[in-house]
Amino acid sequence: MRIQDEACGQLAEKFAVLFRHLDERQRRLLMGAEARVLGYGGIRGVARAAAVSETTVRKGVFELEAGEEPLGRVRRPGGGRKRVADLDPGLRPALLALVEPDERGDPMSPLRWTVKSTRTLARELARAGHKVSADTVADLLREEEFSLHANAKTLEGGQHADRDAQFRYLNEQVRGHMVARRGAAGAC
User: What angle do CA 145, 172, 114 make, to 5 degrees?
Assistant: First the structure.
């Protein structure tokens, strides 16, 4: 029994050193190879040493025995967790409906932002039944070409007489720089 415990400890140490350098499939193959070397009870021993399920080790053994070719990627295309916006098609319209009353800037211009924080928007979306984080809200706003800025002041002052003229000027400047950047990119 003591020899098995020592072997398990040595395997655990080996896995701790190597796993951070290996992708998901490579880890399974390593565990599968170790389980085959150990023979009877190897799958259970390797699973304990690696702190994974026996199913994962068994899959590694099967992959070794099948002689599969190395993959160019760890997961198959389309694998992994789906984006919240893809799973909840009503999320984006709900977010835009929340942002619209407090949207700043001309919607047709490149300068658009909201005064609500991403945390506030995430809470309001959660109350409406959409499971979403503040980071996801920020990503969705960026996709909708909103610029994320923190509020500079908490109390609004009076409206400046030339406020609209200021924003028209800023929008013209941004458009001009964007056109210039596109022209420079096309010259390459």
Answer: 35
